[in-house]
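Project standup — Tuesday

K.O.: blocked on the structure for the chain from last sprint. Re-posting the sequence here as requested.
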Amino acid sequence: MRISSLLGTVVVGCILMSGCAPPRPEMRPGLPASAAADGAGAGELLPTGMHITPEVAEGSLFQPLNPDLPGRPDFVAGQAVTSTSSPDGQTLLILTSGYNRISGLDGKNLPEASNEYIFVYDVSGHKPVKRQVLQVPNTFNGIAWHPSGQTFYAAGGVDDNVHVFELKAGVWREEGNPIALGHTAGHGLRVRPMAAGVAVNASGTQALVANFENDSVSVIDLTKRAVVTEVDLRPGKVNPAQRGVAGGEYPFWVVLKGDRKAYVSSQRDQEVVVLDLGGPVPLVVGRIPVGHQPNKMLLNRAQTRLYVANGNSDTVSVINTATDKVVEEINTTAPPELWPGRQGLKGSNPNSLALSPDERTLYVTNGGTNAVAVIRLGLEAGDGPSQVIGLLPTGWYPNAVSLSQDGSWLHVVNGKSNAGPNPGACRDTLSTAPDALDSCRSRNQYVWQLTKAGLLSLPLPSAAHLATLTWQVAANNHFPSARRHQADAAIIASVRERIKHVIYIVKENRSYDQVLGDLEVGNGAPTLTLFPEPITPNHHALARQFVTLDHFFASGEVSGDGWNWSTAARTTDVTEKMVPMLYGGRGLTYDWEGTNRNINVGLATVEARKAAHPQTPDDPDLLPGTADVAAPDGPAGEAGTGYLWDAALRQGLTVRNYGFFGDLARYQPAHPAFIPVVRQPFAAAQVQFFPTKPSLQDHSDPYFRGYDQKNADFWLFKEWEREFEDYVRNGNLPALQLVRLPHDHFGDFRAAIDGVNTPDTQMADNDYAVGLLVEKVAKSPYKDSTLIFVVEDDAQNGADHVDAHRTLAYIVGPYVKQGTVVSTPSTTVNLVRTIEVVLGLEPMGLTDGLAEPMSEVFELTAWPWTYTALIPEVLRTTQLPLPARTALNSLPQTAQTRAFARPRRDVTYWEQVMAGQHFAVEDDLDEARFNRALWHGLLGEGTPYPAARDGHD
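H.V.: unblocked you, prediction finished:
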């Protein structure tokens, strides 16, 4: 029996007989000193609800990626994405592509320290030894060796070039200027180019580069150091008869077979494009359908098999390169014995591959489950099908795996880490530019700056130890075979029997301490509170009346990934790779709420798109169809339908959408089809909203405006109220309502209507709208059959003394405990899972399918409840039509109430300190300047931004 087969037999036997279960928590090596707060003892708790145990493997070594910056000895880089071994196996390169920005005392990025990095490790002795760190202004995943091993190439990302590094006198140096690729723009609206995957041919004469935003491949003559041709990968550009046919878009990775054949993964179109390089000009000669979001690819030594990681299908496609046909699809999530009947749930996000020296074992990084899958390959008759035989735990979101030359050591690169406290965060939401010496931004505590990368190295485990590590991964991810999580099933079942309607409110960017830090109960830091009770009386009242969730964590870092966690309970690998790049100002577009390259791909035709945005190019080959490159798939592989509303619709439930996933372009005054803010749009017959998701087209209120800081949440509530009253009259309230109330994001002060034009009034407006909605339900016939869930999409714009992910969440309605503090850690995923369980929905993916519902907030007693919205006093300085002050709708007149009865600064001040900021799209800001302004504008220039937790609670 072959070694790989024997290994698989032992592992499977251990799993089936539970003979190789994980050691007791206290016996596990390598655990952080502070274990998870939920008592699982399974390592470090992530804001996704999963755990990581990167050093639990025997003999493992975990190293931070420190680039040794002068004057910054403790700096660690984030977002490591690719590793590659030299042809002789002695050198390992690790590439970062992400945020990686450092600010100086003047609040500006330090050019010498705000770059991406190439780490050069000597792995000849298995345990990596860092030899050198090279800096590159921008990158995007692509790095490749020359066959000689004396040169390597790194794609320059948004700089649209390729960097060339050569080894001279034992030192790596960049040789000459980067090779320019020659693009002036990418395809779409306001899109820049993006050089991604790069590969070199066998003879070392040519390199191919995937142009991620141009849907093409550039062919470089390496001797001339110049592009000799560019191949458009889209069917309609290859053959005019196929105009308007999707294909070849968002090319990510390139693999070369010898000198004559190339394979390119197309992430939007679920295909690998085949190029013939043997003729006078390269030609597209084939398209191989594979899984969704194909990313990295790997050829075996004989170049007879091509392995393709499919990030959105949780599979590896195996292609016979003689026939260019897929011969096998391998699931990467877990051994079948450990994952029975769960293959439909997606979310393990395979994204990198490596082969053992005998090529009978494939190693695949599963970014979504923080593990490396060990796959026994079925290559010959009698081998059986290829399958996962074990799992290795890693750090958070592994992006690359490499092997030592002898195959005895694995090197795994991960892209993320927990952020920890951020009391000195500068991204509160506003920020003064003039205060050049203000040290706030120089503390570099923005969530993406606190999110670090690492390198895990470990010897190949024995079969018995691999089985133990497999159980560890199962425990880390709450696999059902490893953890039976139905302790409170009776409570949840009872709630499900009685609750028929869920209203799900998503807001923007606030941290827990920023709003509830002054609450007399719970774990808050009053010194970090910018919006105390007089400004947010409903936030405080709802926390007191129902459940205070003081250890609730947003699963996403920012809106880009936060809206996916809030609506799909997971992200795709495309999202994980692109979001930190965009937020770091390194190119790409906001592709995570239904637009791709600023095109509404929810609309299938050029005519429909041009009607929505007249500046849309008149090109049928620009992103044809309705595929969304970043969207998660449904559990049965339904393309792009892995969202909460899709789950409800699949279950036959009614859905109504108020502002989720809309096309925001028409809200800008310069837009040819500008839609002005209308206070009562239904009465004016003025359509306000255009969905970006086909499945939301017939389920969205067209008169509910989407994200627009010029508008007031008060008027959004009034439009929701108009339909709610109709539902009450007709007795047909939808099972699931999605409501977006975004004014706690802040912005567009001068253009904001009704004098709601300062952070104080905008936060109060958001607070009052939430209170009004709760009051409306509480005083309706649906009060005893409806639950209201409220969450922030992320916590990036506020400081917090516990963690940069800690944020606000509420569950309101019958069967919710009253006057209770729940400090059990919970996350966005737990909240979404609770909605699913209450409505009887099937899980959308792996993450929510394995998550616990928040049963601790419920009880079987249906206590009577009511609610009256409180009016923040500061709103009386606006022109909103507010009711008269009464004892029921107002806070008592105290010194604190009076102190916050007027905005702390006027609109002129905020316009000055916000000059140049762009509020049209979530987070499209100089966030550090934005946040610093909020702190000083609200608390005064004399109040220093806190650098450390003061311990006051």
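K.O.: great, moving the ticket to review. The chain is about 20% helix and 25% strand. Residues 141-289 form a domain with the Methylamine Dehydrogenase; Chain H fold (CATH 2.130.10.10).
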